[in-house]
Amino acid sequence: MNNYKYDSFLVCEVVIGLFAVLVVLHTGLVVTFGNPQPPLSDSGYLVREMIAFRAGFTSLLLLIYLWCRLTNQKTGLVLMAIALISWVAFLEDFMLLENAFFMPELFSGKVLQFLRPIYLITIVYMTIEAHRREMVL
Q1: Which of 9, 61, 120, 123 is the most buried (most CB within 10 A)?
Q2: Inter-residue contact 44 to 35 (CB < 8 Å)
Q3: How confident is the model at residue 137 (pLDDT cuts 50, 70, 90)?
Q4: pTM of the model
Q5: Cβ atoms within 10 A of the Cβ of 126, count?
């Protein structure tokens, strides 16, 4: 039974890694191909800067998680921070920004919109499993 949980945890890591790579790719594509003209207002500029900051910060936390995982350190706290930031960003996008991050003409945006709920559920599962494993140790 433990082997099954370990395998599911690895699958979750692959899903989260794929999502992180797509977020960085899509952020780069939005910056590159996204509105070639200067923003008409400060709010458009701030939204793009906030999106880039969130993608960078989440990527940094995922790199910290990877380092902790490779050096056999506890990962529960790092996963909890990633899950918290991810859920806050999702709620913020859903309630305030609506489709600021989604560009329908980019395939990466469509894939991210599909994977985001899967990512959010996966990161919560990984957080719970990491805490459960750390409590046993």
Answers
A1: 123
A2: yes
A3: low
A4: 0.77
A5: 23
**Burial readout 59-87 (b: 16 or more C-beta within 10 A, e: otherwise):** eebbeebeebeeeeeebbebbbbbbeebe
- Binned at pLDDT 50, 70 and 90, residue 1 comes out as very low
Nearest by Cα to 115 from 47, 2, 14, 7: 14
Token digits of residue 62? 């995922």
Q: What is the mean pLDDT of residues 3-14?
A: 76
Q: Which residue has the tokens 């991210």?
A: 112
From first CA to last CA, the distance across the chain in angstroms is 17
Reduce the secondary structure of the chain to three states and give it as a string. CHHHHHHHHHHHHHHHHHHHHHHHHHHHHHHHHCCCCCCCCHHHHHHHHHHHHHHHHHHHHHHHHHHHHHCCCCCHHHHHHHHHHHHHHHHHHHHHHCCCCCCCCCHHHHHHHHHHHHHHHHHHHHHHHHHHHHHHC
